[in-house]
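user: can you give me the structure for this one chain? tokens are fine.
assistant: on it. calling the predictor now.
[tool input]
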Amino acid sequence: MKTPIFQQVMRGVAAVAVALAGSFSAVPALAEAGPTEPAPVSPSPSAVSGPAQTPPAPDSTPSAGPTSAPSSAASPTAAPAVPAVDPAAAPAVAPATAPAVSDAGLAEALRRDLGMTLEEFNAAGQLGRTAADAVPSLRKLPGYLGISLKDGKILVEGSGPELQARIDELNQAGPSSDFVLVAPAADPLKVPSAAELVASSTEQLFQAYVREVGPAGLQAVAYSGGSFIIRTGGTTVAEATLSILLDPQPPSAMSGTPAPGKISAAEFVSRYTNVQLEQGAPIKTEQDLFGGQGIVNDLSSVCSAGFGGYGPGGVPLVLTAGHCAYDGAARETYIEDASSSPAAGANPVWPFVTDGALGTFGFSQFGGLQNSWVLNPTWERGDSGEPGNVGTDIAVIGGIRPDLALQPAAGKWRGDAPDFSTADPTNPGPTAVKIIGMVTPFQGQEVCLSGRTTGWSCGQVDEIGIYVVGGTTYSGNPSDVRAFSGFLSNTVESSGGDSGGPWISGNFAVGTHSAGENRGAIEKFAVATTLADSLTHIPGGVQLQLFLNKPKLVAPENRTFKVGEDIPGRVPAAPASAVAANSKVRITVDGQVPVDVPVDAAGNWALPARVTIGQVNFSAETANGFSRSDTARFTIKISDLDAPVITTPAEGAALPTIDRIDGTGTPGMTVKLTGDVGGSALVQPDSRWSIPVLRPVYGQIAVHAAQSDPRHEDSPSTTRNFTVTPAAPAVTSIVDGLHFSQDSLPATISGTGVDGADVAVLVDGTPVGAARAGAGGAGSGARAVVRPMAPYVLVAGGRWSVPFPAGLASGAHTLSVTQSVDGIASDALLVTFIIDALVAAPAAPEVPAVALADPGVPAVQSVVLPAGSGQLPNTGAGSLLSAAGVAVAALALGGALLTGVKLAGARRRAVR
């Protein structure tokens, strides 16, 4: 059975990470999915200021048709202003929640990234917890430098008798001697001279550095490999817009010239025997830009980003609508803060709130060549050409900020109407639609638009043609109308500010938004410029930025291949629908000249066969023009041995139990079995081998077999997958046919099962709610899992427990219990129990009243018997005999009832 990941292991891993981070130092990480905090901006000083006298309204989408109302985005004449930054205005962003990782996914990640099995990872987690528990007591002792894990041991770096004594105590307290004291690179007990100091902790060194050198340019103070590290190279910039205001490499720290009253970093490090100085590149948080995000220009007008692309030489650029450049009047562009966009649910604000620079407008065309109007001005003067001047509506933004990562994807803002609950506008990455190519529009085509005002809107293409819209000066000159090739939809909604936003069909780019009626208009329509036509107008050409996954190997579990055979791989398509056409995988083997291999329609590729035995290191990236995936790095081995064959069990077999793995191989070689079953065996002269399964396994099982010989590299491995169904779990708290009194029901239902299994408990077919583990003897690390259909409880320490359901009526009930491992469920164990109704106490019989004598009637006289008559004297109590009998009966019944309560209580405690 695959060993489950219990909470105690994960807590141990987390604990040692925290403890070791405190003992060493934190290393800043580069965020790939955007900044952890949005860049600080302010609605007033940081927004791009417009003209002082007549700023245009925030609407850069012209109306369709020369007879429409004038465009509200007339060209201003004021000089552009540079946005300022106000850190206090930074909108808060909720931290992202890490996705849950299954055992299978974790096992694969561990094998790929760490070369560890799940069992080894669990053991390392327990070792890490042991180390973390020891850190507080070690840190207080003189001579302690740090702690690390290596080869299954806890290495404590430092020296001194007190430290050694504490390590001895820790080893005596544990089941094994896990702690080992290792000498540091520089002996802390050495007496320092005036020019030779010894650092004792990262905290001490950090404070000394800040005090004597200052924080400028400092990246990290860390401990590794027996020595401390001072890393300089520029202050980490958490918000992209800070680069406008701060020099990322302060001269005082980078040039070696100390600030007044301070010493240089090099001089500081030279005082220490165990400190090194490293030069690092400035660390910045990368910011992402998706299609559909707002773009603010220096004329205080707003549009939407379209698609990422590449110009000549692979220079990155962003495409948007040509009219957003105002015939070349607009130059600088800035990214609108996503949380302030109407598409994110925010109320419209002006001036617009920005989130750092984007780039500079380069080529733009709105209408004919050089932004010319529809009517050819030379035609009336005898030009033999056509009178109508049809162009495009496209603009190129270049000079993209270096730390800005253009994403080949269109953001969905708040998601699909009408619920708008499928996407987070401040974190568009998880739901953004990837772009893998370009198609031309056609009638009936399903399309969607992403824009900073409307958000995400989908519909169909209703027509394709040439569209005429009011030009930049249309409000003052009705002759300024422009024409472009495009398409129209009567079902897609749009509004001012959506201009330039991407129109897509599936994972393919179709166009950029140009014009339309505002959302909610009686005659709703939206018009886009055809992207395929637009790109033909851009000088030098533009390549669309495409989404590409990095290559993966299709490899045996041990990543070993037979000499002379091609090494296969695959480029995954997901989350896109396919791999971009004409993609290649660029492979670089051990620093050699890169070679390109083709990728077929299914994403398959292959590295040509190797002829040399041994290890091969190579890197691979998916390429399509200038578009590139992340780089994948692989280490494989080439062997001249054949892989063994596993004969039983069969692939995909469903078994009730398994006691051995059988197969065939090369006589005299050793077959090693890894995975969920381990072991080894010698291949017999008849080519057969057999390895016993020494411990029970359940669930989805994978085993890997490879042949081994001291004179050869191990062979490629063979994998066999099968399932083993666990037996039904046991119920220990209730036996079949047991009776309970309604007033003395048990608190829990409990039992035993396979450690790590999920147990489902139902009573009369209804899942028992609020599953609980860890009570009534459950092992540490148990967790409760409540699922929509049937609550589960994780077996920990071989035990499980759930609360006894409330509200059960008197009568017979059926308890059903199953357990599953990796989704493989056992048969149900059925137990019947009976809840007895409460028995009401019988009513006491009526006692006849004693009649009093009527007046004048003599009362009954007592008879006094003589002594020795053998009869009891009459005391006058004879008439009370029946009442006394009732009292005795009541006492007896009360005793019985009390006894029943005690018995019921004893029974409840017995089965609890």
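assistant: here you go. The mean pLDDT is 74. Residues 498 and 657 are 62 Å apart (CA to CA).
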